[in-house]
From TrEMBL, chain B:
Source taxonomy: Bacteria, Pseudomonadati, Planctomycetota, Planctomycetia, Pirellulales
Keyword presence, Secreted: no
Species of the source: Rhodopirellula sallentina SM41
Cofactor(s) annotated in UniProt: [4Fe-4S] cluster
Keyword Lyase found: no
Protein name: Radical SAM domain-containing protein
InterPro entries per UniProt: Aldolase_TIM, DNA_rSAM_put, rSAM, rSAM_sf
Domain Radical SAM core: 59-175
Pfam families recorded: Radical_SAM
Transmembrane segments: none
Amino acid sequence: MGGIREKIEETTADKKAGLKTRGFAPAGQSTQMIVGATETPDVDVLKTASDLYSQQKLRRVYYSAYSPIPHADARLPGQSPPLIREHRLYQADWLMRFYGFQADEIVAEKDRNLSLDIDPKLAWALANRHFFPVDVNRASYEELLRIPGVGVRSVKRILSIRKHRNLRAADLRKLRVAWNRTKAFVLTADHNPSVHDLDRLDLKSKVTTKNEQLMLFDAAGSAVTGEV
Amino acid sequence: MNVQEKLAVLADAAKYDASCASSGSKKTREGSQIGSTEGMGICHSYTPDGRCVSLLKILLTNYCIYDCQYCVNRVSSDTPRARFTVDEVVSLTMQFYKRNYIEGLFLSSGIIQNSDYTMEQMIAVAKRLRTDEHYGGYIHLKTIPNASQDLIDEAGRWADRLSVNIELPTDRDLVRLAPERKSLKSWPRWAVFARRSRKPRPTRKPV
């Protein structure tokens, strides 16, 4: 409750002042919301979450895909939303907390939901191509964080390496950035031919993987039935 | 109903609570003799839908006086009911912890009698674990909507993390599906605040 935040702030302030405190919820507070029980789009879910993070200083907001319950009310949907929707919300949540994204810029789709087939950072990059290519040897921390396939740790590594030398494409691959997603969006010290794909209409198909992840638990089912 | 049967009912009822963190606490609290908390945590095992389980995640009871439509434990549902005593939860937690099944306790509850009574019962579990068992591991308590501030203060003293479910992302959804909760008065103060204010935020410093 509001009281929880006030109490947490009070305790930390006391501790900083050198007073002896009894301690209050040292791991902070969290909350959860159910997604998919109503037709509320992802952008509203993310806005609520971002308000909670900024105003209530929550440690985590959990998104829980609605799962149908027996004898449910007629107003509730008959089936749960795809689990991937929950996953995309968590990815967007991370973008808000660690990558400096705002809730309303993450969701680019017309129906105000996150796209299920590609991750939200890649979706943002595809919709905002004027922002790219980003020069990894000159761009600021904030700009580097926006490159698809490059995470917070890679960005920190890039910043520390480029004090000493210019980064080439091979260096980025060696840093284990997701090169397939990254290559069309970055300028490197050497020639990076993939940057020419940036203006192509079919860029999305070029940067997404063609292989499909097999489900571990489907395999268990087919082992029992014998069907593939 | 014996403890195993209760555990089956109440652990199943808690599966809808999505929280798997057993970390984020500063350091193990002073004076504890068993159990520890860490800033960073690991997860033990995975459920078929991919979530990890590292906590003994149970409800104190799944009896409830509310009638929230999305909830399996609403008063009008014919789900089997059970209720743990405080002692039972304490002994289950200690026994599981000593056998290394769990990293901590996640305790939520349906609302019985009234919010304050339910909250008191949950606090009693956390307090017994800390004082009688000298347990220093992770405890996550759900706070009950409407419980008094004194009880929240008490809960925060014994628990590592507190949480309140805001349940649905917008007010409109809430009015439709959770009739008892539709009055904003019954909402935790911060949830109301978060819902009402939609002011543009100052740009946040990226981490």
